[in-house]
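Hi V.,

Quick status before I head out on leave. The structure for the redesign project is tokenized and pasted below; the design run finished overnight.
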């Protein structure tokens, strides 16, 4: 079942074109990750699909009654604000103690309900954000750089949790990420963008690329290295991409 579909989607900010000619869909149960260099429009794409940003051209359609659980990249909470986790989870809709206890246990932080949000570790904080999203009983989880600021074990642990949630709930997962080593093992499909969709396919397509292998040995920039692996086309003066057909065939995912 298709949950969200974009056709010819374009987004402009202040007269500047950020995204153009985006054709994209995601189905129930899929884990899809959006990657690309800084400034490529990844977060804008996520927000346009979410409905927060209106496309300047094209269409975005969503399944009727679609329930979305959203985990932002950052959420600043004033350290002086007395906001216990249980109160945070009840915003804006009051939740039962049993439901909150169940979801906190589900995300691996069962003992933080009475703790103040500002005292949580980075990993705990992200799991509480995920818990709040799961209380929506979502058809799709949308994650914007959900592991920013976490150390390597924390990143791997979080994505294992996401995979478990997808399997148990049957929801789709659409995320923006720079954690390419995890993307390779945690995604069904990877979408590389730089204003438009440059390439997409299964992780196996990307894993075989020399640029991806060099990512670990050379310490090159994560999102850019993946973006480059199949950027096998240039643009004419209308910004239309021209693909190398042989490369496209060999990289079909």
């Amino acid at each position: 079942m298709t949950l969200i579909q974009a056709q010819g989607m374009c987004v402009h900010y202040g007269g500047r074109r950020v995204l153009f000619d985006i054709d994209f869909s995601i189905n129930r149960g899929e884990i899809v990750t959006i990657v690309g260099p800084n400034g490529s429009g990844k977060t804008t794409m996520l927000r346009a699909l979410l409905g927060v940003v209106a496309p300047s051209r094209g269409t975005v359609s969503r399944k009727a009654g679609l329930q979305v659980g959203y985990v932002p990249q950052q959420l600043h909470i004033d350290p002086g604000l007395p906001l216990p986790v249980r109160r945070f989870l009840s915003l804006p809709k009051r939740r039962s103690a049993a439901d909150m206890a169940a979801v906190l246990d589900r995300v691996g932080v069962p003992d933080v309900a009475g703790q103040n949000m500002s005292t949580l570790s980075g990993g705990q904080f992200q799991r509480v954000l995920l818990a709040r999203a799961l209380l929506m009983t979502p058809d799709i989880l949308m994650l914007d750089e959900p592991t920013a600021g976490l150390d390597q074990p924390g990143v791997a642990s979080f994505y294992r949790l996401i995979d478990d949630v997808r399997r148990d709930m049957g929801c789709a997962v659409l995320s923006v990420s720079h954690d390419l080593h995890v993307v390779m093992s945690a995604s069904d499909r990877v979408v590389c963008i730089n204003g438009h969709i440059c390439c997409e396919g299964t992780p196996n397509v990307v894993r075989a690329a020399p640029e991806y292998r060099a990512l670990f040995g050379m310490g090159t920039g994560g999102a850019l290295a993946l973006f480059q692996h199949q950027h096998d086309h240039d643009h004419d003066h209308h910004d239309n991409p021209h693909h190398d057909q042989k490369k496209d065939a060999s990289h079909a995912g």
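Above is the designed sequence. Residues 152-169 form the longest helix (18 residues).

G. will cover questions while I'm gone.

Best,
W.
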